[in-house]
C-alpha cells in the first residue's frame, strides 16, 4: 500500500511538473509572439520575399545596416546579431557603443566586442529600428575567408521572432509573412512539429536509431552550421555502433577552432521523415567548456539536413513545418581529402586573350586575317591550406598547413569558387586529385585519391 501510495504521489507530482512546464512554455510563447522588438513588415504588407545564396549549406542574405548594404548569414543558432569583417565596409555608422566580453564555441577564451544599440536593420521590406549588434574586430574570426565571399555578419533570432519565415532551398528564396494575416496552405506532405525555446534559440526533438538502440535527443536548430548533426556526448555511439570514426577540424567558432570526431549514424527519424547514413560530428569537450548550454540540449541539427526540406519557421506559435525536397535522398558526404582551405588575400592574374582581326581586304576582295593577343590583369582570390587532417590522403601526399593551392586537376584555383573546391573534395571516393602547390616560392606537384574513412 505504501508503494502504491508513493507511486500515486509520484504520478501526481509529474502531472504538476508537466503543467508548470506547459504554463512556462505558454508564457514564453507569448513573450516571443508579441514582443515589440525584432523585425516587422510594414502595415500595408502581408509578406515579402528575397533571393538567397546557398554556400556550403548556409543561407546568405542581403542586409542593410543603417543604410549600408551588407551580406549576412541567416543563422537560427544565434540569439544576437554579430558583425565582423568591417574592414571590407567603406562606410558604416554604428550607434551607442560600449565594450563587452563575449564567448562562443571554440578552444580559445572570451573575446572583446563592441555592443551597439539603436541600429536600423532591413531585410527586404522587414525592418527593425531598435536593433543591437555585437561587433567583433578579431580578424581570425573573418568568415569571408572561410566562405569565399564577403560575409559581414550573422543575424538570427531577432529576424524570426515576429515573422513566419519560409526557407525554400530549391528555389533559393526566403519568404516572410506577417503572422497576423498569415494563412497556412494545406500540405499533405508537410509535417508540423513543436519547437521549444531557451535563451532565444529554438530546439527540436528527433530520434537517433542504431542496430542496438533508439534514442530521442534534443537538438538546437542551427542553420549556421554546414554539418548535418553535432552530438555533444559520444558515449552511446562511439563505443557501440560507431567504431569507425576519425579526428577532424569541425569548424570555426567565436572562441577559436572546433575539433572533434566524425562518423555516421545509421538513421535519424524526424516524425515520419527518415534519413539514413547521416554524417555526425562529436566536438571535443575542450571546445565546449565554459559554455552554458540549455541542459536538455544534446547537440545541433545543421544545414546539411535542413537543406533537404522546405522549412516554415513559425516562432510566434512555437512551430516548424517540414516538407522534403529533391535533395532529401542525396547521400551525406564529408571532406575525403583532409584539406580545409580558406581565402587568404588576392593574387595578380595575367590573362591572355587571342582573337583574329579580319578588317583587311585586298583589291581582289580576299580577307586577310591577322592574329592578335591582348593581356589583361586582374585580382583573383588566393587559396591557402588552413587545416589538414592527420593521415588523410592530402597529409600523406605531403601537403602542409599554409601551402598555397595554385591549381586543381589542371584548372587554376582562381577559376573556382571556394565552395566548388569544398564540394570537389567531398565528391566521390577514388577520385584522383592533382594539385599544384606553392610553398616558400617553390611550386610542387602533388597527387592523391579521395578515400572514404568510414
Task: Describe it.
By secondary structure, the chain is mainly β. The chain folds into 3 domains: 47-177, Acid Proteases (Cathepsin D, subunit A, domain 1), CATH 2.40.70.10; 191-324, Acid Proteases (Cathepsin D, subunit A, domain 1, Beta Barrel), CATH 2.40.70; 339-352 and 380-449, Pdz3 Domain. It is 14% helix and 47% strand. The protein has helices at 2-34, 143-147, 157-160, 285-288, 303-306, 393-396, 418-425, and strands at 47-51, 53-55, 58-65, 68-74, 81-83, 97-102, 111-123, 126-135, 153-155, 164-168, 173-177, 191-194, 196-198, 201-210, 213-221, 229-231, 246-253, 256-270, 273-283, 299-301, 309-314, 319-324, 339-361, 367-388, 404-408, 411-412, 432-439, 442-449. The strands form 4 sheets. A 6-stranded antiparallel sheet has the order 1-11-10-21-22-12, with no helix packed on it. Strands 3-4-9-5-8-7 form a 6-stranded mixed barrel. A 6-stranded mixed beta barrel has the order 14-15-20-16-19-18. The protein is globular, with a radius of gyration of 26 Å. The model is unreliable at 1-35 (pLDDT under 50).
Quick check: average pLDDT? Answer: 81
The main pleated sheet reads as: 6 strands, antiparallel
How would the global form be characterised? globular
Provide the spatial order of strands within the biggest beta sheet. 1-11-10-21-22-12
Poorly predicted regions are 1-35
Distance between the terminal alpha carbons, to the nearest Å? 55 Å
**CATH topology-level fold name of the largest domain:** Cathepsin D, subunit A, domain 1
CATH H-level superfamily title of the largest domain: Acid Proteases
Count of DSSP strands: 28
Number of domains: 3
**CATH level 1 name of the largest domain:** Mainly Beta
Architecture of the largest domain, according to CATH?
Beta Barrel
Instruction: Report the C-alpha radius of gyration, rounded.
Output: 26 Å
Beta percentage is over 45%
Based on secondary structure, the structural category is mainly beta
Helicity range: 10-25%
Amino acid at each position: 500500500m505504501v508503494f502504491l501510495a508513493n507511486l500515486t504521489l509520484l504520478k501526481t507530482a509529474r502531472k504538476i511538473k508537466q503543467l508548470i512546464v506547459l504554463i512556462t512554455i505558454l508564457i514564453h510563447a507569448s513573450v516571443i509572439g508579441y514582443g515589440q522588438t525584432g523585425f516587422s513588415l510594414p502595415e500595408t504588407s502581408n509578406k515579402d520575399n528575397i533571393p538567397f545564396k546557398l554556400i556550403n549549406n548556409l543561407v546568405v542574405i542581403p542586409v542593410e545596416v543603417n543604410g549600408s548594404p551588407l551580406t549576412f548569414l541567416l543563422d537560427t543558432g544565434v540569439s544576437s546579431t554579430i558583425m565582423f569583417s568591417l574592414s571590407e565596409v567603406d562606410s558604416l555608422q554604428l550607434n551607442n557603443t560600449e565594450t563587452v566580453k563575449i564567448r562562443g564555441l571554440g578552444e580559445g577564451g572570451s573575446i572583446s566586442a563592441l555592443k551597439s544599440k539603436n541600429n536600423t536593420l532591413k531585410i527586404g521590406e522587414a525592418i527593425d529600428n531598435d536593433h543591437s549588434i555585437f561587433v567583433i574586430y578579431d580578424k581570425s574570426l573573418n568568415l569571408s575567408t572561410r566562405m569565399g565571399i564577403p560575409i559581414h555578419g550573422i543575424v538570427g533570432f531577432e529576424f524570426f521572432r515576429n515573422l513566419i519565415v519560409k526557407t525554400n532551398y530549391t528555389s533559393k528564396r526566403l519568404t516572410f509573412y506577417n503572422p497576423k494575416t498569415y494563412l497556412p496552405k494545406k500540405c499533405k506532405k508537410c509535417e508540423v512539429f513543436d519547437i521549444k525555446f531557451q535563451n532565444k534559440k529554438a530546439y527540436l526533438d528527433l530520434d537517433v536509431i542504431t542496430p542496438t538502440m533508439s534514442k530521442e535527443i534534443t537538438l538546437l536548430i542551427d542553420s549556421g552550421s554546414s554539418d548535418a548533426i553535432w552530438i555533444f556526448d559520444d558515449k552511446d555511439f562511439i563505443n557501440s555502433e560507431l567504431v569507425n570514426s576519425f579526428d577532424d577540424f569541425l569548424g570555426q567558432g567565436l572562441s577559436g577552432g572546433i575539433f572533434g570526431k566524425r562518423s555516421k549514424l545509421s538513421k535519424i527519424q524526424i516524425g515520419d521523415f527518415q534519413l539514413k547514413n547521416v554524417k555526425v560530428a562529436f566536438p571535443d569537450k575542450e571546445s565546449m567548456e565554459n559554455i552554458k548550454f540549455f541542459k536538455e540540449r544534446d547537440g545541433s541539427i545543421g544545414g546539411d539536413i535542413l537543406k533537404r526540406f522546405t522549412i516554415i519557421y513559425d516562432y510566434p506559435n512555437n512551430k516548424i513545418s517540414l516538407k522534403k525536397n529533391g535533395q532529401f535522398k542525396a547521400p551525406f558526404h564529408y571532406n575525403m581529402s583532409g584539406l580545409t582551405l580558406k581565402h587568404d588575400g588576392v593574387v595578380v592574374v595575367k590573362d591572355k586573350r587571342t582573337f583574329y582581326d579580319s578588317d583587311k581586304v585586298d583589291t581582289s576582295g580576299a580577307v586577310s586575317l591577322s592574329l592578335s593577343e591582348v593581356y589583361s590583369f586582374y585580382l583573383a582570390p588566393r587559396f591557402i591550406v588552413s587545416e589538414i587532417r592527420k593521415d588523410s590522403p592530402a597529409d600523406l601526399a605531403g601537403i602542409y598547413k599554409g601551402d598555397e593551392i595554385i591549381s586543381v586537376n589542371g584548372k587554376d584555383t582562381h577559376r573556382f569558387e571556394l565552395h566548388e573546391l569544398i564540394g570537389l573534395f567531398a565528391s566521390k571516393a577514388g577520385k584522383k586529385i592533382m594539385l599544384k602547390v606553392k610553398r616558400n616560392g617553390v611550386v610542387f606537384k602533388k597527387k592523391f585519391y579521395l578515400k572514404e574513412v568510414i
